[in-house]
Amino acid sequence: MLEQAKRAAAAALEAWRRAASARRVRHNAHHVTRAGLAAGLARLDIAPGDTLFIHSSLKSLGYVEGGAPAVIAALQDAVGPHGTLLLPTYYLPGGTLRAACALPGYVFDPRRHGTHMGRLPEAFLAGAGIRRSIHPTHSVSAWGRHAASLTEAHHRAPSIFGMGSPWQRFIGCDQAKVLGLGISMGPVTFYHALEDAMGDAFPVPVWEGGTRLLGCLDHDGRRWDVPVRPFDPEVAQRRIDHPGRGDLRDYFHREFDAAGLRINGQVGDAASWCIPAQAFYDHLRQLASEHVTIYASAAQLAARPVSQPSPHARA
Ligand SMILES: CC(C)(COP(=O)(O)OP(=O)(O)OC[C@H]1O[C@@H](n2cnc3c(N)ncnc32)[C@H](O)[C@@H]1OP(=O)(O)O)[C@@H](O)C(=O)NCCC(=O)NCCS
Asked: GO biological process: what's one of them (predicted)?
């Protein structure tokens, strides 16, 4: 009873905080519409039939009339009825894979557990026609043509991001692109697909110890024990998404621009970018062979200057 009351009070407080925050954005930011967002996406070469893996910051877009659902509608407009949207709807209690593994008795339940990945993934999860993969820490959700095939059997994959995972299937889709809406090159899960594909051949030992099993329920309430491998926390401190690694984010930004792989543009007010998935993956593999990974030290970056700009590079 007390627990229930505490939860209700916390939810009411959070709803109040969110309403106040949305009011601030509405008063201070430039207003953008679904049609304006769709026009921005077209300038990033997002086209009908595309399959997009999207990482986002809602507040970077300006004040979106209609909120996160309007952004999702604009993305659906941009890829059309034959396109596919894929969003990170990870539920990560404790904030990291390692913390989730340490939580006694933790079992992921897609009927109860939402996502910690921001307002756009939250709204996507609540929307119609969504498929959600079953995974204790890195459940993704998809809408559109490839939604079922991208999300199926994630819980049976031997690793989170490798063979049999949504990422590996995503790379194989026609017109697959990674889209960053108002985010840097930091919070991009796609990098881990290469680590899981290369395993111990990846040049940095990114994992702490071996594989663990974490529980999750599927949509029918059946329990699965799913293999996960936590990241070494010391190595994660050097990773591109760590606040202290602005140098690495800047390097990757310039490198993918120079290679002519990153298309940059404004979506609403947000500096945004898009990179075709197969070319992204191939370039990450090439960089890894030259000792540049999302964990590279300043010395490793200095030893491999950013590529010469390609004639195809676009501002
Ligand atoms: C962390 C992160 C989500 C923060 O971005 P953000 O814009 O502050 O947060 P959200 O996208 O959740 O948007 C919420 C904010 O939008 C703003 N907002 C509310 N209504 C809005 C509207 N109609 N229009 C625009 N902004 C609005 C509010 O400021 C709100 O902040 P609040 O939480 O204080 O209420 C983002 O920086 C990020 O890293 N995104 C990628 C996450 C990811 O995919 N991670 C996996 C990679 S490993």
From this structure: response to antibiotic
Residue 89 CB–ligand 1 contact under 6 Å: no
CA distance 72 to 60: 15
SS3 279: helix
Task: Tell me which residue has its CA closest to atom 26 in ligand 1.
Answer: 59
Ligand 1 mutation pick, 13, 25, 58, max ligand atoms within 8 A of CB: 58
Residue pair 257/264 in contact (Cβ under 8 Å)? The answer is yes
CA contacts within 13 A on the Cβ side of 151: 27
> 48 and 76 in contact (C-beta within 8 Å)?
no
- The residue-averaged pLDDT of 259-276 equals 98
Q: Domain-by-domain residue ranges, the chain?
A: 1-28, 33-303
**CA 302 to centroid of ligand 1, rounded, Å:** 33
| Residue 22 burial (CB count, 10 A) | 16
CA of 36 to the centre of ligand 1 (A): 19
